[in-house]
Amino acid sequence: MSRFASSTLLELVLITSVIFVSGCGGLKTTSYMSPPDSRLRNYKALEIPEFETDMEDVPEEALLRLPKEIARVIQERNIGFREVVYGETEASTDESTLVMFGEITDYTSGKDIKFEKGAIKFAEAELTILLSILDKSTGREITSGEISGLSSFGFLKKGFFTKGVYEAVAEEIAEFLAENY
Questions:
Q1: DSSP character for 40?
Q2: pTM of the predicted model, to two decimals?
Q3: What per-residue string of b and e applies to 43-69 under the rule 16 or more CB within 10 Å gives b?
Q4: Which of 3, 86, 93, 154 is 20 to 30 A away from residue 107, measured at CA?
Q5: Around Cβ 126, how many Cβ atoms within 10 Å?
């Protein structure tokens, strides 16, 4: 094969790959959160316990990794909380602390195959979380809502072409907190 032919073939493969990757999928997040009852800037700390679910097919990793990812993104954005902890760790003070509870209410693995409206859908990972943020000292709900993430590449975690549903959902939550801080 000549150099010209192999160079042309390589260019064709690269162009086709770029078109395929950009046109065949992506990552979408949606959120429906109620406005907070009080200013979030009144709180100094945020606790994010492990998430829960009643569904049997949700991987344990999702319940553990989501709170960690949310805490990481909130800390990176420096939203204003002095302390952000996740998992079994509690904030150092009970005064002016928020607790973010999450429940996974819908989950589809990227390995699942679905039949929808006469078409076959596969390699889509989807995750929906019911979120509730409470004042730790009073137990009063400050805000609640639902956040969904969908990756048509099938990645819940960070993949080669996409950041993944976990990170996208964490960024959506951090954006909501930043807007209402």
A1: G
A2: 0.76
A3: bbbbbbbbbebeeeebeeebbebbbeb
A4: 86
A5: 20
